[in-house]
Task: inverse folding
């Protein structure tokens, strides 16, 4: 068994002149995860590391650069899941957290819960030395002027040398959302899921992804012995048949196969591992 990691930078419409930079951002993020896997590190650490890089890149709708809610504030959602143990951690509608995926990991490892929201999640961050910041520091000028229309969300799924899989997803959600709105990303089985069959991260119209429990649906298809490419495509076909939304999905199967699919216009994706480095799509 060898390692592999695949990351996505969000489904949706983006300014065409930002596509190359987004592809490059995905490559840098995938490399951050691959470094950990090459050293024998865990899929969980690798998926988290890749998502942190994307959260720190203002081009992407997660962490710094997140889209704004109706009150002009960033509210973040994130989740992480270890497929080998089914342990998961998530945060919803949190403000002033520089790396929400780090907080999700802390919820998984340092609390008896899976999902913490809002003010309680913020207090948990302070108690566990997860970096907090002035919420304004996460706002970039492009989001203030909202020159592009996108759903965004970032995610990574990884397979480590011991055959363990993990998924991590982080987002600022959707532009102009009501304060307190929670999307698919932190809901296990909707935007994020991992078990011993597959690890899955989704992006796109959150309410529609929740309706179709898209990540769990894709993992179930892999468990039914579909290959990863077919499972990703069938999951997106199911999504498109039952909703008006757009979405993208990345997944790794226990066999090490890589799958991705989308019905959105764009979804930058980068995969590293095995013998080849691939930038698959934009
Ligand atoms: N998929 C991100 C969201 O709708 O919040």
Result:
């Amino acid at each position: 068994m060898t390692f592999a990691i695949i990351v996505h930078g969000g489904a949706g419409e983006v300014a065409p002149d930002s596509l190359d930079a987004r592809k490059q951002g995905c490559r840098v993020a995938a490399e951050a995860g691959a470094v950990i896997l090459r050293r024998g590190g865990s899929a969980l650490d690798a998926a988290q590391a890749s998502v942190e890089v994307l959260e720190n890149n203002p081009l992407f709708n997660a962490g710094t650069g997140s889209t704004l809610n109706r009150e002009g504030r960033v509210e973040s959602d994130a989740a992480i899941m270890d497929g080998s143990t089914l342990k998961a951690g998530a945060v919803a509608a949190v403000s002033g957290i520089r790396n929400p995926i780090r907080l999700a990991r802390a919820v998984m490892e340092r609390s008896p819960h899976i999902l913490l929201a809002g003010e309680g999640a913020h207090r948990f961050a302070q108690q566990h030395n997860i970096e907090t910041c002035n919420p304004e520091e996460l706002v970039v000028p492009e989001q203030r002027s909202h020159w592009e229309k996108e759903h965004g969300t970032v995610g990574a799924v990884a397979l480590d040398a011991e055959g363990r899989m993990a998924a991590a997803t982080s987002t600022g959600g959707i532009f102009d959302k009501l304060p307190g709105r929670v999307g698919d990303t932190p809901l296990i089985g909707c935007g994020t899921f991992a078990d011993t069959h597959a690890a899955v991260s989704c992006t796109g119209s959150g309410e529609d992804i929740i309706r179709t429990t898209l990540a769990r649906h894709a993992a179930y298809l892999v468990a039914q012995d579909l290959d990863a490419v077919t499972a990703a495509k069938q999951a997106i076909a199911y999504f498109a048949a039952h909703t008006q939304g757009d979405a993208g999905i990345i997944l790794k199967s226990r066999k090490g196969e890589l799958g991705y699919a989308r019905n959105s216009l764009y979804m930058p994706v980068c995969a590293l591992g095995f013998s080849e480095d691939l930038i698959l799509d934009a």
Q: What stands out?
A: The mean pLDDT is 92. The chain is about 30% helix and 25% strand. The domain at 4-281 is CATH 3.60.20.30 (Glutamine Phosphoribosylpyrophosphate, subunit 1, domain 1).
